[in-house]
Design brief:
Radius of gyration: 27 Å
Low-confidence stretches: 370-384
Number of strands: 12
Helix content: 25-40%
Largest sheet: 5 strands, mixed
Distance between the termini: 57 Å
Mean pLDDT: 86
Order of helices and strands: HHHHEEEHEHEHHHHEEEEEEE
Number of helices: 10
Shape: elongated
Strand order of the largest sheet: 3-2-1-4-5
Strand content: 15-25%
């Protein structure tokens, strides 16, 4: 039966949303419609309708590669000018310690591991940096971290401003921005399991040895150990390995040569990682201010909802600012107490079509429970 243009949307709506079909994809909807109906642009119209279906947009996972090509962080030009911070939690008590502050130099890959009794405040974190970084390596140009409460407070921002250091924060639910620290923490946890499997409460006594082991191993990113890249020499393990004495000018020339080699290796590594990562990514669609998008619930736990049955996207929300080709700021309702800046891999554009008109009123997003257990409803957080 031929379908006139003015009722094609109704036919597709019947085939796509009926109880006997339940929102199938393009191919199945097309096959269902073809059993009884025909018009010249059936596939095109059905594809347009389904891409605009809000039920599908909210509840179906995407099978596309993540949006947003990899953008490597700028390459530092010297040791300890750009550092990254993170915390390792969930450890068994060891001599009163249960948390580790991991600090990594993004140039040399050198690290410091600091055992702590609990997650510190912003003021204590600043004091730890003074004690374990600034007095040894000087003031960095940039401090990279996630969006933990220590790094979002006014105290931390004023501390960085007083030092003249830039504070860089990862975008919401996108820890890959601080990937070097995340990878360092994985290595740290693996080493802890190796040396503390028989006595897990002894991890704090093993921490200095783990730090030395990491700093003495050759980094795959630079081709040198962190000791060599940051200090200009490899500390000897045996008396026979003692280096021969060299003059100060020779040492300076060797250190500069090491830095140049490290920079070149970092650029090559960044390009290699970018090529490998982009094989599994796709360019993000161009976004503009005022555009509506869906927000992924991958890292947002919906309150009182089974994860299996919870919507995969919530919204739609309006883009208030395009910060960069990789991140946007959304206008979120007050009930969502989460940071409004998101990586483009966590959003997807809202598609509209005359074949599938939007409902008269969008349902409000369900209450959310954040990944840290806080409930995003009302004016204050509360623990679950």
């Amino acid at each position: 039966m031929y379908v006139p243009q003015q009722v094609r949307g109704a036919v597709i709506h019947w085939a796509h949303t009926a109880r006997f079909s339940i929102h199938p994809g393009v191919g199945r909807t097309l096959a269902l419609v073809r059993r009884s109906f025909w018009w010249p642009s059936m596939r095109k119209d059905i594809k347009e309708y389904i891409s605009s279906c809000q039920v599908c947009a909210r509840n179906k996972c995407t099978n596309q590669s993540p949006a947003g090509l990899l953008r490597p962080l700028p390459i530092p030009s010297r040791p300890w000018s750009h550092i990254a911070l993170d915390f390792v939690t969930g450890l068994p008590p060891s001599k009163g310690f249960s948390v580790i502050l991991s600090i990594v130099d993004r140039f040399s890959k050198a690290c410091h591991f600091v055992p702590l009794k609990s997650l510190p405040s912003s003021a204590v974190t600043a004091e730890l940096l003074i004690r374990h970084v600034f007095r040894l390596h000087g003031i960095p140009d940039e401090i990279l971290s996630d969006r933990g409460p220590q790094f979002l407070s006014k105290v931390w921002k004023e501390f960085a401003i007083s030092l003249g250091a830039n504070v860089s924060l990862s975008s919401g639910y996108h820890p890959q921005t601080n990937g070097q620290c995340e990878r360092l923490n994985q290595e740290l946890e693996a080493m802890l399991r190796c040396v503390c499997s028989s006595n897990p409460t002894s991890w704090s006594t093993q921490l200095p040895w783990i730090e030395y082991a990491h700093n003495s191993h050759v980094s795959s990113a630079t081709g040198q150990s962190p000791f060599e890249s940051s200090l200009g020499y490899q500390p000897p393990l045996f008396p026979s390995d003692l280096p021969t004495a060299i003059s100060v000018p020779q040492f300076i020339r060797r250190a500069k040569r090491t830095w140049i080699q490290t920079c070149a290796a970092l650029h090559c590594t960044a390009e290699r990682i970018r090529r490998l990562a982009d094989r599994h990514r796709r360019p993000a669609p161009p976004y503009v201010s005022g555009q509506q998008v869906w927000l992924s619930t991958r890292d947002i736990k919906l309150k009182d909802t089974s994860r299996k049955l919870s919507p995969r996207f919530i919204g739609p929300y309006t883009i208030s600012e395009v910060i960069s080709p990789w991140s946007v700021r959304l206008l979120l309702p007050p009930s969502l107490k989460i940071h409004p800046v998101f990586h483009v891999s966590l959003i997807k554009p809202v598609t509209s079509s005359t074949l599938c008109p939007a409902p008269l009123s969008d349902p409000p997003p369900p209450p959310v429970r954040l990944a840290d257990g806080t409930l995003g409803v009302g004016s204050n957080y509360r623990k679950i």
